[in-house]
Amino acid sequence: MKVAVVGTGYVGLVSGVCLAETGHEVLCVDNDLGKVEKINSGVSPIYEKGLDELLQKNIGTRLKASSDLAAAVTESDISLIAVGTPFDGNEIDLKYIRQVSAEIGEALKEVNSYHVVVVKSTVVPGTTDSVVLPILERYSGKKAGKDFGVGMNPEFLREGAAIEDFMCPDRIVVGGIDENTRDVLAKVYAPFTDVDVLRTNNKTAEMIKYTANSLLATLISFSNEIGNLCAAVGGIDALEVMGGVHLDKRVSPILENGERVKPILTTYLEAGCGFGGSCFPKDVKALISHGKTVGRSMELLSSVININKHQPQQVLDRLYKHFSNIEGVRVAVLGLAFKPDTDDMRESPAIPIVSELVAKKADVRAYDPVAEEEAKKIFVDGGINYCSSINEVLEGANVVLLLTRWSAFEQLPETIRAMNINPVVIDGRRMFPAGEFERYEGIGLGL
User: Fold this and answer.
1) Which of 83, 165, 353, 408 is positioned for an S-S bond with 96, CB 3.0–4.6 A?
2) CA–CA separation, 177 vs 102, rounded Å?
């Protein structure tokens, strides 16, 4: 099939590259000429593990980038909208959705076949039918369901594992206003076999995405609340507590041969310094806001956000236990991205933590394998010495703050011993048991 992907951000570019890899002819569209030029030269404008390789493999053959949206629509069978939907504090901002819907509508005037327009952007339930569809009809002069289709196809991509998630999906949600629309959208995913495909209406497809992310965010905040209680009671390690919970066969099933399966879901049932990124905070807040518009007070999800908001303070509290005044104290920050295998700094717990360190004039040194450039865009006033290796960041450190679970940090105990230093290690991700370090503080351990 010929597929137009509108928007070359995280979702759009990953989707476009992966669809090209499966055999479709894909044209990625963006009004940022710099991005278009980069993509066409085989350089990804975003960091995602494995993306560069697939991009270089397919660019110029089954994959191209362009700024001409109208041509992309008229030359394709289906258009996927993958533009940003930022949350402004009260609701998601649909200006980009509205803009591209109008442009696609104009282009549909020149299309004689049954073209299908699909929203992949994360939007609150009702947006595709009540916002996108009317705009398409108004600008095209045509009728949805008769002249063109309108669908919704949420993505379930984990940053750092997006290529794997797209190429080996656990589910595909095909939303549409009618069977004709869903049939066309399903053809896009025909190369994917042995995967559950859920065909539904657009509102339900939209709600599935928000519900999935809200569940995972809830598991994290639940784990953090339990961890904070463990710390307050004392004599309890949340790492052991959650390990015991994981042994429930409903959480980690036991196969007939006696082997225990540890699902990825258990990684969300671990205490830490909070969630971040482009999805969980935005999506949970957006669902809370959307609930209010229909008279529903989303009290559980409001608590999820509130717990997460205060969780970075758990790291700082452990720091102040050892240093009442941190001016001049050398603090080695390990990890700035909100999670490993990505350079995404959005809503990262490292932001409020490092900001306070800088404000209180600590000697801050930081190392993240890929997020340094993104961090410099956030901490524009400086106050941070960026290092290029673990050994460099640890040199002379009084305190080590572990804020991202990078695999590069797995040898931290051995590295500290080899360097013959004895800093206070504050493990914000509970990568290590308490006995690995002489001076150790961790989330979920008594202060």
Assistant:
1) 83
2) 19
Whether the full predicted model's pTM is greater than 0.85, yes or no, is: yes
Which of 354, 393, 386 shows the shortest CA–CA distance to 372?
A: 386
CATH topology of domain 238-447: Rossmann fold (3.40.50)
User: Could you give the CA distance from residue 157 to residue 169 in angstroms, rounded to a whole number?
Assistant: 9
**Options 3.40.30.10, 3.40.50.720, 3.90.1300.10, 2.60.40.1230; which CATH number does 2-200 get?**
3.40.50.720
Q: For the chain, first and last CA: distance in Å?
A: 59
Catalytic positions are: 279
What SS3 state is found at 163?
A: helix
Using one digit for the tens of pLDDT, what is the confidence trace for 154-210?
999 999 899 999 999 999 999 999 999 999 999 999 999 999 999 999 999 999 999
CB 153 within 8 A of CB 120: yes
Distance between CA 401 and CA 313 in Å, rounded? 12
- Tell me how long the chain is: 447
Task: Answer whether 432's CB lies under 8 Å from 416's CB.
Answer: no
Domain boundaries, the chain: 2-200, 238-447
Q: What residue type is 360 in one-letter code?
A: K
Best CA proximity match to 373, nearest among 46, 85, 55: 46
What is the per-residue DSSP string for 380-424?
TT--EEE-SSHHHHHTT-SEEEE-S--GGGTTHHHHHHHHT--PE
**CA separation for the pair 164, 157 (Å, rounded):** 9
